[in-house]
Amino acid sequence: MAFHPIRFPLDIALGARGGPERATDIVTLASGAEERNSRWAHSRRRYNAGYGVKSRADMQAVLAFFEERRGRFHSFLWRDGLDFSSGGATPDPLDQVIGTGDGVKAAFALVKTYGASFDPYLRPITKPVTGSVRVAVAGVETSAFVLDELTGLVTLDAPPAPGAVVTAGFLFDVPVRFDIDRLDIELTSFDAAEAPTIPLIEVLE
Q: 106 and 96, same structural domain?
């Protein structure tokens, strides 16, 4: 198996449905009280690309993409139409805090923070969009860094001074794979086709 750095057809992805999934165990005690346990440190996203197929051409594009990925075998990139940026539509280098300098460390992993008041969730961003990443140290934007586009690791040319906050802005994709090995396609007319279920699942790394 391998990761293919190619994005699922964007016009089809924008019509899809899906979002994050969690795994929570809930045990009800004899008293009626609950004990809850979150089994996953990170959420895992699921999507159904079938909703985005609007024409025979769309279905042919999905078919070719599916075959090249060998069904569930190879993973690829997916653009979540709701959640694909560190902040607004245009990344700002101050969008997300990714670390604090200690005078020694120079490498920082991209993350996106959800929430603020109670228990913020830090989501690792491993597939930033090429050319979209902007970085700032102590509030000053810098271009003196190298980005690993396959892991989301930012390595600055020099370690930030102790206490200097490192921030970043970026666009990103979600690494996913097909969650089926069989496409069920229906030709509804001469120029229309449907595949009601084309499930995709995020590949956590």
A: yes
| 89 and 167 both lie in a single domain | yes
Residue 12 is given by DSSP the state: H
Specify the number of domains making up the chain. 2
The reply to whether 161 and 203 lie within a common domain is no
Beta bridge partners of 109: 153
Residues 57/145, Cβ–Cβ less than 8 Å: no
Domain enclosing residue 90, as ranges: 85-172
What DSSP line would sit under 46-109, residue for residue?
EEEGGGG--SHHHHHHHHHHHHHTTTTTSEEEE--SSS-BSSSSS--TTSEEEEE--SS--EEE
Query: In terms of domains, do 31 and 90 share one?
Result: no
Query: Is 0.85 topped by the overall pTM?
Result: yes
Q: 191 with 55: CB under 8 angstroms?
A: yes
Arithmetic mean of pLDDT over the chain:
94
* pLDDT tens per residue, range 67-99: 999 999 999 999 999 999 999 889 999 999 999
What DSSP line would sit under 106-171, residue for residue? -EEE-EEEE-SSS--EEEE---BPTT--EEEETTEEE--EEEETTTTEEEESSPPPTTPEEEEE-B
Task: Clarify whether residues 116 and 144 are in a common domain.
Answer: yes
Residue 116 structure tokens: 């603020």
Residue identified by tokens 């000053």 is 140
